[in-house]
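BACKBONE GEOMETRY TOKENS:
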Amino acid sequence: MEFIWLLFAFVCGLAVKMINLPPLIGFLLAGFLLNFLGFEASSTLDSLANIGITLMLFSIGLKLHVQDLLKREVWASTLSHMGVWSITFAGIAMLLTILSLPYFGVLEFSTAALIGFALSFSSTVCVMKLLEETGELKTRHGQLSLGVLVMQDIVAVIFLVAATGNIPSIWAIGLFGLLLLRPIINRIVDQAGHGEMLPLTGLFLALGGYELFYLVGVKGDLGALIFGILLASHPKATEMNKSLMNFKDLFLIGFFLSIGFTALPSLDMILMSLLITLVMLIKFVLFFVLFSKLQLRSRTSFLSSLILSNYSEFGLIVVALSVANGWLNKEWLVILALAVSFSFVITSLIYRNAHRLYRRNKEALRRFETPKCLPEDIFVQPPNAEILVVGLGRVGRGAFESLNCLAEGTVAGMDADKNRIQTMKEAQQNVFYGDGEDADLWERLDTSGMRLILLALPIAEDSTNIAIQLRKANYQGHIAAIARYQDEREELLASGIDNVFNFYTEAGMGFAEESLALIHPTAKAE
């Protein structure tokens, strides 16, 4: 990457972060500024952007399970939403045509519906970044959103085949043979170890999957996704994803910069793109209604709809093809590039307050719930639990197992990762599924017999929010939490949490004390 790109990305990213906004907004701004100042994108920037997207799709695959895509709330909501939205947007565009607004006056219903179809996709990049930043990838609404994104990606493949006329090679049938190669792929990952070979193996599989699918005439991004899904059940899937995270985030900067290089807009283009951005509200309402009708709880419907209500970079591909085929004027590519950028900014700003918005409006939103929810949205509280560990990752799992040794029969665990809960239940452990940030859960959960709740969550803000919800739900016991940094510890204590464990500092102290006891047995006792 040329230094000037890094300079603008760094300055703009840091500037927006200093005012408490997501850095991706700064990266988008950097791209438009570079374009305005006369800099041009090169093939290097496009290559970096493509690698970032490929790694991101591979990472999605590592967290997905095929059975999740077969759920009715995933495929039915995706296909229904795309159809209804495309027709709805076409109707709105026809109304704007009557009003003779710029660029809408020459549209026909078919071309307007095509633009609506392009805007029906949600941004995989934007959604993934937000879910990662908030630690919600494995929550109910996080997994639902990822399922919808994958279904949209499948529709994208079908569209590209139909629009370009490029039918996949007969050799594409051989891709089904990847299922037979799964043991070999797993063996390769086993041999990679835990060092630098693990991220290198991930890069090899992600880019190799892309090239393999592209070679037989199938969308390369889908190949990266499929290879990730093949590894989703591997014990090292989570470790591999973490090892690739920094690489992926760095390469994705190229993607955000590349959007700004699309074209320089006129004032009319900016106004039309803002108008299209406002229509996202309808996209949100459609998602919410469909999810609610499919028996999802109001909170799941609300959060999923909110994070999916943006426009996708794939929409630019659809419009580019339409321009190349003479179906649309080239100005529409600029208008949609701006609308996509604006949608990223709005979604990033609003979703950061999503849980607060739900708590504020939950009574009104609950009216849309069906009387009967889906079975997996109903939690069963373990009886006789005096101590509850919320979050069963590495730290939480260790605390849960240690407490079970000290107070067996009175400890329960809760986590938002259904697969983790299922595995622990099969091992006869006292755990149940639940999202700690779910305000409804704490209102319905009986905490009267609980004396201590441990919040073993990686994001300090989540622990603060849960502590507030617990007090509002009239919880009378003690709350403990973990922190990585001293400033986080102070914030958590200020929010009313009784004890905060800095696991970097205090784990080191514990290690020192245990080691010192080897040569001075009385040191530990003292």
